[in-house]
Amino acid sequence: MPTEEIRRQVVIIGSGPAGLTAAIYSARANLRPLLIDAPADTEKQTTPGGQLMITTEVENYPGFAEGIQGPDLMVQFRKQAERFGTEFLEEWITKVDLSERPFKLYGDNKVVIAETLIIASGASAKWLGIPGEAKTPEGFGGNGVSACATCDGPLPAFRNKRLVVVGGGDTAMEEATFLTRYAGRVFVAHRRDKLRASKIMQDKAFLNEKIEFLWDTALEEILGTQEQGVTGVRLRDVKTNETRNLDCEGVFIAIGHKPNTELFKGQIEMDEVGYIKTSHRSTATNIPGVFACGDVQDSVYRQAITAAGTGCMAAIDAERYLDHLPIAMPSGDEITIEGEQLPADHSVIIMPSGEVVSNEPPSPTLDDC
Ligand SMILES: Cc1cc2nc3c(=O)[nH]c(=O)nc-3n(C[C@H](O)[C@H](O)[C@H](O)COP(=O)(O)OP(=O)(O)OC[C@H]3O[C@@H](n4cnc5c(N)ncnc54)[C@H](O)[C@@H]3O)c2cc1C
Predict the structure, then answer these.
(1) In Å, what is the CA distance from 177 to each residue of 142, 247, 305, 353?
(2) Residue 16 above 80 pLDDT?
(3) What is d(CA 279, CA 288) in angstroms, rounded to the nearest whole number?
(4) Which residues have a Cβ under 8 Å from the Cβ of 109 and sit 6 or more positions away?
(5) 248 is catalytic
(6) Ligand 1 pocket: which of 20, 21, 34, 51 to mutate (most atoms <8 Å of CB)?
(7) Over the range 83-122, which residues count as b (16 or more CB within 10 Å of their CB) and which as e?
């Protein structure tokens, strides 16, 4: 059992663009945030710095006219958070108790007690686990293999090239259709003889002359060299078991994403896939004092800039939440700022005028959706 206890007003889980932006904002608000950063772990797919650590060129993050390498961008995020006093704790959080405030987070070595919690634990792209798929230098990840067409499709390496998209759902159709803006030809390899994607996405893809479907086809291996990057794929017909090679210069794995929310299951409201539900105009979850930002609550946009944007929102939401909590006075009474009084059960606030109002936390809840 961990023995050392750390108590903080603002605790952030996750060191991707969302978590680090939340840290920058809450550190500048003098809230001394503690940012919990999972150590690198290939199996759990965690890297300090988040998903951008496994990519190369980031061309669409505003402020970098010439583009920037993903890991370099995350170094800048981290330095900025450090500059304003963010404290970092390298720990895997393995258990949380969100049943009452302050919330309790358990790591292997420490217990963290949080007045407010910002969840920025991100999401992980699902991978096939085939040879050639791993990050360079073990494979071609970041050198011809990607899990994000919006992010990497426009890169010069993929322009007018032959690309393979793997998957049969909406994500795969969206990625394949998007890639035809840049690619010469897009092959969609799908294990079955029909798609899982919605009818409208299928129709769009079927009408696109640049897309060719490879039915009943599984990807066995991604081929290439470290100098050239991807040069082809080895395919297997799942009905006949025959294999063949197909020349291509890029592979996009589009078999879905998994939000990193296992830890919070049963304690916080999520959608059917496991994305944390937030109020439509804030980062509030169904638990007052717990906020979620970035890919962990976003199955739609999944970009660094949107993650950073919601990280900023979460810090401001947490700050406002803390501002409205009652303060204990030496007399034993509790007041909030400007003379409002709080009875022992905290259920209402007695205003200086004598008016009695409910003491519901001010942050928006899911009821606002
Ligand atoms: C290959 C690839 C290329 C991309 N390229 C671009 C691009 O060019 N432009 C763009 O805008 N977007 C790009 N994206 C998307 C972008 O990376 C994500 O949208 C963004 O990183 C999401 O940020 P986040 O902070 O929400 O989460 P993440 O970046 O996923 O970070 C989450 C963090 O939480 C930590 N964590 C998880 N669980 C725990 C736990 N239990 N305890 C402690 N810590 C935990 C993880 O270790 C990780 O550090 C790309 C994504 C991929 C996969």
Answers:
(1) 21, 20, 23, 62
(2) yes
(3) 11
(4) 2, 4, 91
(5) no
(6) 51
(7) ebebbbbebbbeebebeebbbbbbbeebbbebbbbbbbbb
Look up residue 327 and give its amino acid: I
For the chain, give the longest Cα–Cα distance.
82
Distance CA 331, CA 329 (A): 5
Tokens 């404290």 correspond to what residue? 87
> Does 369 participate in catalysis according to the annotation?
no
Q: How many whole angstroms separate alpha carbon 221 and alpha carbon 206?
A: 26
The answer, yes or no, to whether the previous bond of 39 is cis (omega within 30 of 0) is no
pTM exceeds 0.70? yes
Cβ of 141 closer than 6 Å to ligand 1, yes or no, is no
152 is an active site residue = yes
Q: Which of the four pLDDT bands, split at 50, 70 and 90, describes residue 160?
A: very high
- Cα distance between residue 360 and residue 367, in whole Å: 13
Cα 85 to chain centroid distance, Å, stands at: 24
* Cα of 253 vs its chain's centroid, Å: 17
Residue appearing with tokens 């439509």: 280
**Cis omega before residue 343 (within 30°)?**
no
Note the pLDDT of residue 136.
Answer: 84
Span 308-322, mean pLDDT? 96
Q: Please give the radius of gyration of the chain, using alpha carbons only, rounded to the nearest integer.
A: 24
CA–CA dist 315, 297 (Å, integer): 15
Q: Rounded to an integer, what distance in angstroms lies between the CA atom of residue 357 and that of residue 92? A: 41
Distance between Cα 16 and ligand 1 center (Å): 5
Q: How many Å from the N-terminal Cα to the C-terminal Cα in the chain?
A: 40
Answer positive or negative: Cα dihedral of 71, 74, 80, 84.
negative
pLDDT of 106 higher than 90: yes
